[in-house]
Amino acid sequence: MQAVVKSRRGPGGEVLTVPTPSPKDDEVLVRVRASSVCGTDVHLWDWNPWAEARVRRLPLILGHELSGEVVEVGRTVRSLAVGDHVSAETHIVDGTCYQCRTGRMHVCENVQVLGVDHDGVFAEFAVLPELNAWKNDPDLEPEIASVQEPLGNAVHSLLPEETDEDVAGKRVLVTGCGPIGLLAIAAAKTFGAETVVATEVNPLRAKLARTMGADAVLDPTADGGPLAARVREASGGRGVDVALEMSGHPSSLALVFDALTPGGRVSLLGLFDRAATLDVDSAIVTRAAQVHGIFGRRMFATWYQVKSLLRRPGFREKVRGIITHRVPIPEVGRAMELIESKQAAKVSLEARW
Known about the structure:
This protein is an alpha/beta fold. Helix content is about 30%, strand content about 25%. The strands form four sheets. Strands 3, 5, 6, 9, 10, 17 and 18 form a seven-stranded mixed beta sheet that branches. Helix 5 packs across helix 6 and helix 5 crosses helix 11. The longest helix has 12 residues, at about 180-190. The chain is globular, with a radius of gyration of 20 Å.
């Protein structure tokens, strides 16, 4: 089969002919119908310091966001059949550690990630453990199905725990309007948020944030006074109830707490490429802030929430609206250029070889 392979430590990747994988007893073989590019894929393509420190094996087939059709099932697979339309939960877990056995598989102590630790999905075929193959509604379009994984990140950021109150009637801040931030805006408004304020410097993404339903989109580089004060003004004066940090920028770390109403909660999803500092006393302790680190999605509660969202009138159109470009998987290099030049939000990869 053909696949996009990272074969050496350094920037780039290449399309190679590699053996078609065979599923083990508890795995399925999937014909890839569509994929999409994630920020993690960009890091691996560029081979930034995170990639250099994180990747343990090469060569590696890249990619993890997937829509595909099951074409072969392993001997012990019972929940899936040939012809099923599936997407991928990208956290491959051991099922035996303390976290897995206490209902927290998404933070498995020994988690491995598709397209980072295991061969990924920028290929004609991919292998998934039965547990990781999420069965889609038959009518779900491939380009939408492949975006469910980052949509799950957005929903998990909004609703990080089973016991958390929802966001209906709340005032929400989203810092950074990359694809996950954009999806978080759409989800927050669909869940009934009273006001959503976003911060973004890129004009394309700022425009998309408004399309997703943001009530105000603030440029952090623009004049107009301290950004936290501008967020508070845009959210009615009292500060936001829920703040989602999606950018990984150190200044946004301080902002989400400065703009937070006392007793509010913060979800941190963005990855910082260097150490960031925070005045813990004033930001968290005396503000009684609830802080959640977000890693992936809850397995599999978040997937059911995503499935419900995609059945709501108009929501699929919102998801489709963040897909600004569509290119064949073998041209993933062009997709990376579009993203890094800030011409694109989400790039969908079509299975055309």
